[in-house]
Amino acid sequence: MSLRARLLAAFAYVLVIVIVALLVPLGINLQKRLHGEVESLASDQAELVATAASRGLGSPRQLGRLASESAQNLDGRVLIVDASGIVLADSETARTLGENYGTRARPELSKALGGRTEQGLRQSETLDEELLATAVPVISGGRVRGAVRVTQSVDAVNSAVRDDILALAGVAALALVIGLGVAWILAGSIARPLRGLAGVARRMAGGELGARAEPRGSREQVALSNAFNEMADRLNAVLDSQRDFVANASHQLRTPLTGLQLRIEAAKGKTRGAATARDLDAAERETQRLSELVSALLTLAESEEAAESAEEAELASVSSAAAERWRDTSAEAGHELVVLGRGTAVVGGSEADLAVILDNLIENAIKYSSPGSPIEIGWKLGDGAVVLAVSNRGAPLPEEELEGAFKRFQRGTGAARGGGTGLGLSIVAALARRWGASARLRNEPDGIAAEVVLVAADGTLPTHNPGPVGSMT
Ligand SMILES: Nc1ncnc2c1ncn2[C@@H]1O[C@H](COP(=O)(O)OP(=O)(O)OP(=O)(O)O)[C@@H](O)[C@H]1O
Ligand SMILES: [Mg+2]
Q: Which of 31, 336, 343, 351 could share a disulfide with 313, CB 3.0–4.6 Å?
């Protein structure tokens, strides 16, 4: 889960809790208050009508006016009955006049006629809706003379409550969206420097040792970037000194080594004994090996230095030059050397470095391929990259050997077939890294392909596919 998603989830969690904690009691309270207000208004009005009715019970017209006026105020129905429950006035219709309403179907009226004020919700069977019924006795001279009943539909109140709660929910949703928007921006500002730092770390891992993080963001983020840059500087210093040491040591070893070789050669000329001559031959081979090792170490140390400037090379010319260099050697070993790549492929890298890369790959192909089999040099286009490959026939290598071959002094199971230091592919990898490229060994259906994935130079990709590269896929 990304940092942004985590922060958003945390914000959403807190916001939802706060909103629910505030809105639920607010909604309940609102509902109670609205209902309470309606109830007390209905009671007051009913009392008022009852008081007025106690003075005018004898006049049906006066009662009728009273009922319809207060019904208008309340937006409900007002009914006045006499002591026996007979309807004297009804704000809604004249048809009920004279009917007995003091029945069980209207319990509030029975209770009011018993001298008690009654208020409650009940389902009206005639209207099929929920009603708030308020009934109060009409008392005159200490006796119950009748009752006033006010009925109102609570649907209107409920829908008002619903509207208010919906409005509150809308405000809550808006608050949530704004909160999440703020969280999104905040998370981005926290994640951006971290992403930048990760990018720099990846570039360094890819060989760009000069890459540094840009110190920006909060104080902690700046401190992190500075600490990272400090670490990178120290790491670079250690690597530089290690490389310098190897380069200096190899360089220093060269002179005495050449001296040693000359002396062995001179001793060989002077000796008469066959046994001594054999020993001197062996010593000469060992110094030769030592000399190769020293040269390879020096090349490796130099290969690990960063490139000083951006350079570009064209693979067709670099490949045919390499093929020319190795044509005789490979013919002597019984291998035909073919350049399969066609078209122009310009890549980031110097011609000199690509020549060393190809020399090492062709040398390996000659050393490790099946006798008499051809060796192919080719290239093909990838996604913004050009893959340069040297392929040879031979038995497939186990997975760990394919990866391990690029480690220093690492020699595989097939290495016994030819002399070597185990530094060839390390040099290839170091030179490739210098140009933002990478190297790999791959098993192919009929052999091994050593590939270098190079960065294609901008705007110089071949206009047509350069064609198949051996058995490259
Ligand atoms: N084309 C190939 N086919 C099969 N095995 C290979 C091939 N290229 C490399 N290898 C294996 O990878 C190992 C490492 O190769 P690398 O070039 O680094 O060293 P080397 O060839 O043994 O020595 P050097 O290159 O210093 O003479 C080899 O010993 C060999 O086992
Ligand atoms: Mg080699």
A: 351
